[in-house]
Amino acid sequence: METGNQRELPLPFPELNDDQPLLPARMINEYEYCPRLAYLEWVQGEWSDSGDTVDGRHAHRRVDRPDKGLPAADTEAEDRIHTRSVTLSSNRLGLIGKLDLVESEGDEATPVDYKRGKRPHVEKGAYLPEQVQLCVQGLLLEEQGYRCEAGILYFQGSRERVRIPFDEELREQTRSDINGLRALADGGRIPPPLEDSPKCPRCSLVTICMPDEINNLRRGQEGVRPLAVMREEAMPLYVQAHRASVRKKGETLEIAIDDQKVKTARLRDVSQVVLMGNIYLTTPTLHELMRREIPVTWHSYGGWFLGHTIGTGHKNVELRTAQYRTSFDEAACLHIARRLVANKILNARTQLRRNRKTGDTDEQRQLLEDLNADARAAMAADSRESLLGIEGTAAARYFRALPDLIRPPDAEGELAFDFTRRNRRPPTDPVNALLSYAYSVLSRSWLVTLAAVGLDPYRGFYHQPRYGRPALALDMMEPFRPLIAESAVMTAINKGQVRPSDFIVAASNVNLTQDGRKRFLGVIEQRLSQEITHPQFGYRASYRRILEIQARLLARHLTGELPEFPGFVTR
Known about the structure:
By secondary structure, this protein is an alpha/beta fold. Helix content is 41%, strand content 18%. A hairpin with a 4-residue loop joins strand 7 (150-155) and strand 8. It is elongated, with a radius of gyration of 29 Å. It starts with a strand and ends in a 13-residue tail after the last helix. The model is unreliable at 1-11, 49-60 and 411-415 (pLDDT under 50).
């Protein structure tokens, strides 16, 4: 900071006490590269691998094998010593860092940092973030009593060593970045995203940061790049066979029935493991799944969700604090709930308009207009009670018209999927059984997504908190019930993927058979993987990815970055 022509010197950093965490040296590099990236990783605990980060770990395999330790600085020593994988820390600087290699001779030491790729043809032979990270290592070595005049960046792609002098300009920039990151973390406010930056496409956290989406919603910036869209490589693994077991073998999961292997799945292709009924999962397998942050969801044999197992969970305490604070604010809860209900009504209207089996009639046009009016009323509701009434009225209109979306039987005497009204607990006909099961799968998908983002799925804004009830998952699934759950039901019935013979009737309870459930799950997963054009951002993404995008946008709203929670309404 400058006042007139006089430069204001930064205050020295106070020594940390035992309760304050040390800043990792790598975070100083991230801060210089992009303050928002450093905040996401250091303060909010976000992480996601990319090809660059995986390649970087591969490049560090040799130097990650630690030696006996860094010798003490000794002006009398004459031997040149190479020490690999050295971890140093300093409470005075508030830093900790792992150095790839230290070349020392007497009381002089030179840090060597390994970089993947080739040396860039830029001034000083390296970009500023890499220079700063190297300088941090030099400061840590000086804290150990060494003299450190320069460092080395070794580029493995071109096998070149680039010497970086630790001149006063670089030292001042490094100290400024250390103080800046510490102040940023203490301030508790995420920096704004970069605008149309070439840095974003290669960033490993671009699908979490969503720079163009945030800028679009905050300032109406046009031209959203599809940076937050990724191809869904991993998929859920369902296991429902009686007496099945799941074991880890190398990089695969083996599914066996009565100790006979029937299926295998590569771990990298599995996004979650869904166990239905009495399935045996070995402890080593569970440990590996938790280590990889692959959730395991547990269901009854009938498919009802019982709970889920994850690793340590998301570390974003800041987000959960904002979520809890908002959940106790009635006005803020109503503000979010109104949009969720209005979006649900409009998406239900779209479902009816697109899929009706009969021609355009006055009655149907009136129904669509009534649903439009219900959506407007929902946005103007002055209490949760009135919003519940509006939602109930709209749901009654919608479900009365739902039979018009079901294909009539092809042959005389063929059993039809008769549907007169929505009922549950227990469902009394096949259509209601399919709807209930689809809602269960959708709520489980939302629960896993919300937990992965860092939100508490059990503390919502519209559905009231109750023991064992994933209120926020139920909130967020409201706009997607017609688009995913009810659409999957209509598709399964109309295309003959589920037949009346796929149901078991016991007393007044109707449930899917195991074979019918397997085929219906396939329809739901196919719907979740279907790509559509995002109505706000204009790029194509799968419904599975859109669920995560909506969850992250809700998080940005709760933490104050977005003034409004953006809903989701298809056209």
